[in-house]
Amino acid sequence: MSHKVKAVVVMAKDAPVELVTIVVPDPGPGEALVDILTCGVCHTDLHYKHGGIGDEFPYLLGHEATGVVSAIGDGVSEVAVGDRVILNWRAVCGQCRACAKGQPQYCFNTANATQKMTLEDGTELSPALGIGAFAEKTLVAAGQCTKVDDDVDPAAVGLLGCGVMAGIGAAMNTGEIKRGESVAVIGCGGVGIAAIAGAKLAGATTIVAVDIDDEKLEMAKKIGATHTVNSRKEDAVAGIQSHTKGFGADVVIEAVGRPETYKQAFYGRDLAGRVVLVGVPSPEMQLELPLLDVFGRGGSLKSSWYGDCLPSRDFPMLVEQYKLGRLDLDAFVTERIGLGDIEAAFTKMGEGKVLRSVVEL
User: Fold this and answer.
1) Which tens digits make up the pLDDT trace of 80-99?
2) Domain range holding 88?
3) Structure confidence by residue, pLDDT tens digits, 195-207
4) What is the domain-level CATH number for residue 117?
5) Cα gap 254→87, rounded to integer Å
6) Where is the Enoyl reductase (ER) domain (predicted)?
């Protein structure tokens, strides 16, 4: 049997999104059918819309989602019908070279549903990050479902599915922030703000937020930043150093993805400090650094993929921190919208007016 449901797709590069009827099949072996509860509007969805991730249009957008499992296919043991889940795009295979090394957070062969969702005319859809959750129902690999408690706001915890997890994980997993360390975060959009929350959760005592927007810096202070630097008004590196006894931060997280801000991160860290790149650069960008400086400053330069997270490990732990009041996921939910409001949400995102718009179904 198949299911006809409402969903948001983009038919061609830079076309407006459309609310259409799609066809979702019942789950086959290893698959799960999920009734979507909430889905955050993420920059990655906008990248899909602009053709920045691929050209396999039409795309079924949405991926920062919570839902309830309504059916499972043969051989599924990870979840059961009725489970509340957060969807993820790292369903680990357990067999690739990363998994074999005991590093499933880097799995190079993550799973998606085998069957295709389609338009009513049979045109196959490409689900964003293998999820496609701007829909009343979606079909995923069962490993893309992480069971979580159902006594929490799904709109808040669903953001762990991508952007918030990327930021928190950049701080806690990739940056390996330790209690008492100093941290600077360059770029205070959703991911950067989440990195600040992660730094606070990890026990950093000095957290410097850097951005060109005073409103974003005020939000950073509410989330946990102890100091702010408006890099439109003062030099970012000097500003970071001024709040770290002149040395620079132990860890600098770059959440913009540009060569200019990466250089600020590189020179804004202490000797032997760590740089974490979690901002996503565009293909044409190039970085030039004196190799002697790379050698002479020591430390490490890391890139953070999805916050180096392992959903089965990290989602339940962070939901528990949320329930204990140590992680304010509610602060990331700027507005709650419907499926028909996503184009407007993209506009607000581009204007920097929201941390997250969240679709509620």
Assistant:
1) 999 999 999 989 999 999 99
2) 2-161+328-360
3) 999 999 999 999 9
4) 3.90.180.10
5) 26
6) 13-359
